[in-house]
Amino acid sequence: MEIILIVILAVLAVYFYTRAKKLKNEIKNKDLKINDLTRIINQFQSEILKYQTENSSLKTNLQSAKKDLSYIQITNRELKDKIAELSKYQNIIDVKIECEYLLKKAQKDYEKLRERGNLELSEAEKNAKESRRSIKELTEKKQREIELLYENAVRESKRIIDHAENKAETIGGDAYRSLREADEIASRIQAMKNVIKGYGNEYLVPSYTLLDELAEDFGHKDAGENLKKLRQNNKMMIVNRQAGICEYMDNERHKTAVDFVIDAYNGKVDSILSTVRKDNYGILKQKIEDAFQLVNFNGKAFRNARISEIYHQARLEELKWAVVAQELRAAELEEQRQIREQIREEEKARKEFEKAIKDAEKEEQTLKRLIEKAEAQVSRANEEQKALFQQKLEELQGKLEQAEEKNQRAISMAQQTKTGNVYVISNIGSFGEHVYKIGMTRRLEPLDRVRELGDASVPFEFDVHAMIYSDDAPALERQLHKKFLKNQLNKINPRKEFFRLDLSDLKNHIETIGINCKWTLLAEAKQYRETLKLEEEMKTDKTLEAEWEQYQKIADPVSYEEVIEEI
């Protein structure tokens, strides 16, 4: 009897060993198939996402085209109505068109001459071997030439306008004068109504209409430069007596009257410009138009003293670039916010993958212990119990297969050894303009790495231009370092990750290799810019300097250990 039992147990042991080996091979084959299917599914998902993106882009373009077509149709109808209304003044309109053309031509000629003067000045500065005094004299001479060119251009523009006005009066006679006076009276009445009743929503203009002609990477720094140049030119017009007009023959009275209306007009305009936001261009433009009408109306008491149209248009252009700078600044801040939001979402998903892997591993270990226990029970069971334990063992092995499959899928999705973020950061206060660090981190919170880099080793914090999530972050980082090898800042130590290049070149390359991510093209460098401003203010304000020193003493008090050392 014992021999028979031993034989039966040996047969069962061989059977279970063969069965277990067969199950392991089947599990291995299924894992390979699952990996292949997962890879194929990921490829299909990438293709689907690509087609969805293209479809969304096409829909957006189609909607934009429909809006443009509708706007063109409405504009066409309005133009037809205006043509019918003004057909009897065709000669006058032709004169105005010619006037505008000549004025624009004069302005373009001035810009070309100014650029040529600047170029000659730059070449002279590079090649000059004279003393500093000679260079200064040359600079002043070129600056006077540029100012003279601009003054001549403005004077020529005014002459063209006056000539066109006289020609229009000759052609139109009383009809033209009546039409012009009627337009002026209507504008003044509307200006008075606006001042009394307020502006409401009637003059709201979408700010994006000001950005239509700007390039994608046109930062608010460039808009600020244009604004600065405009303000300098406007000051030059005042100095050259081209901002105002008056009919006084006496020079002193003429000067006093013109200065009066210019001060009144500029006071209103400067007050209006101080309220510039990214979304109030239309209202502020109308306020400046109304100020122009009201100041000119009040100036009639001083022999028709008034603001020149050229100066008025220059100040409107000043408003335009101020709004553009505000809008671009807001857009860049929004880009930065979206980058950080995207990073948080990606890290949340990665944490979920890690949790799924840990849960699956824990479930596997539990099932393996239960299977070992069931196998031990089978070996000790009698014939009736064996069938029950065998069924339980098969159920546990099925659950183990599912747990291993779940774990393998989670590992495949997470790709823990290579996933990470490639970051592009800068620090203008520490390294200057156009110097960027291209690095990578596998941390769950990649911004922690950026903050760590800016904590103690550099005086200012880093600005994040892009945070690129990648399934193979080390490979992407190596590819970027290889691409911009010649731009490496430290030519001796190849491990340094700083590069001197245009950010647009890096952005274009990233897009060329098929990676889409959010970019912030302009570095905020907030603490650095505030430091420069504070240093300039403290040069002339000793009270501010004393307050700053007191603040620093409070913010960074001497430690107890330092006091002991001094004693």
Largest sheet: 4 strands, antiparallel
The helix count comes to: 16
SSE series:
HHHHHEHHEHHEHEHEHEHHHH
Strand order of the largest sheet: 5-3-4-6
Radius of gyration: 38 Å
Q: What share of the residues does DSSP label as strand, in percent?
A: 5-15%
**Extended strand count:** 6
What is the SS-derived class? mainly alpha
Mean pLDDT score, rounded? 72
Unreliable sequence segments: 201-218, 558-567
> Which term fits the overall shape?
elongated
Question: What level of helicity do the residues show?
Answer: over 70%
Task: Give the N-to-C terminal Cα separation.
Answer: 97 Å
Organism: Chryseobacterium scophthalmum
Keywords: Coiled coil
Protein name: Meiotically up-regulated gene 113
Coiled coil: 20-68, 96-148, 316-413
What does this protein structure show overall?
This protein is mainly alpha-helical and 567 residues long. Among the domains are: 341-414; 420-522, no CATH class; 530-566, no CATH class. It contains 16 helices and six strands. It has helices spanning 2-86, 90-127, 132-172, 174-197, 220-239, 251-273, 281-298, 309-380, 383-414, 428-431, 446-453, 473-483, 503-512, 526-540, 542-555, 560-566, and strands at 244-245, 306-307, 420-426, 435-441, 463-470, 498-500. The strands form two sheets. A four-stranded antiparallel β-sheet has the order 5-3-4-6. The protein has a two-stranded antiparallel sheet with strand order 1-2. α3 packs across α4, α4 packs across α7 (281-298) and α7 (281-298) runs antiparallel to α8 (309-380). The protein is elongated, with a radius of gyration of 38 Å. The relative contact order is 0.05. Keywords: Coiled coil. Residues 20-68, 96-148, 316-413 form a coiled coil.
